[in-house]
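Our consortium's second objective concerns turning raw sequence data into structural hypotheses that experimental partners can test. To show how far this objective has progressed, the report includes one record in full. It was chosen at random from the queue rather than selected for favorable results. The single chain below, 446 residues long, was entered without modification.
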Amino acid sequence: MGCAGCSSSTTNGVPKGCNSNGSCLTGGCNRLNTYDWFAQMDIYDPTGFHLVEVSFKNGARKDFFHNNESLGVQSGDFVVVDVGSGYDIGQVTLTGELVRMQMKKKGVREDQVLFTIVRKAHGRDLEKLDQSRRLEKSALVRARAIARTLDLEMKVGDVEYRGDTRKATFYYTAEGRIDFRELVREYAKEFRVKIEMRQIGARQESARIGGLGSCGRELCCSTWLTDFKSVTTNAARYQNISINQSKLSGQCGRLKCCLNYELDTYMDALKGFPKNVDVLYAESGVAHKVKIDIFKKIIYYSIKTAVGRGIIVAIDVDRVKEIKKMNDEKKKPDEFVIKTDDPIDPNGEGDLEYADVTGQIELPNEKRRKSRRRKPRNRNQNQGKQQNQRTQKNQSNQGGDKQGPDQKTEGGQKRRPSNRRNKPKNARRNQPNQQKPNQGNKDQSK
């Protein structure tokens, strides 16, 4: 398994996290594993190939080196290799003739291999390698913080220290070209090592980081896939997959590479299907294509009936070709599907076939009851009702207080009814000005 936890938790090159101690069934804890089946055979090859394949940081990067036969290097050994400006520590993954085949696959010539293996790694080398792996996590966090302070539109995805801890390679992703000269100076001042910046794509980033896909297995790009081909949405349409961006996208944010795995099989199967058969005509109605079943060679059509409901009918490809040919000749068949009355053996010896009854059995439309919802109360109506109740109550009180002119009170004296409540408020204002009787007498006396 190429799990990322083993890269930061190792002791003398042996992983701690998966508890398999570097001997799991996939061949080890490296990404992009290659099984050296020649090394498992006790066969001496006098004309062995002089180059070996060495992987660094659990298979995140691989390269070819010249092998010194006196060292006796075999697959699985940790070796110290010369890289020009220093040395690095890696693990041998392939030896012998398999290396020649791997170089041919990757397009690498023998004259392009320059560096050689120095010696086998001992305990001190593996401790230094473990120390360099521990520095990578903190360096990644700090590198992202520095890039953000400089307002650079980039994402630092991974950091790889060399085995001698004198050089660090920063892998980043960006949409365009970035001027990181100031960034390199800040990194050199912070980490005190030689800095190398390397831009990679989104798929290469996910291959280095690793992870699990939606299928439950480890990512193809981090286990065996090396060449990334372009993937389009047409691959999903040919396979009748719904165009859902969240489900079709992988961990890298691009379309999944596995959409191309079975595309050729679907393309070969689609060659037997007719074209321009989206609409078919018959005496019973008009059929519109809904979907196709590629491997059963069936096309589903929706037929409009007099009721107005579309009936889904499955039509064989050969029958569709016949109807299409008749429509091109301006003819219409009686029915889309030819009905056959095959008798069933009463003894049960014959094979029973299950027919598609779609459209033959229709359920009646179900009348839904209207939900009785309480109408929302209107505050204006409630206020009007309360005001009417108050006026009625006042009128009833006024009617109870009224007494006739001949009625007597408890003292026996007559009381005249008071009409103050019945008088309007503006009654005095509407009356003409009258002189008081005292004033009139005074005037007469004068």
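The partners drew two points from this record. Confidence is low (pLDDT under 50) at residues 340-350, 401-411, 434-446. The longest strand covers residues 285-293. Both points have been shared with the crystallography group to help prioritize constructs.
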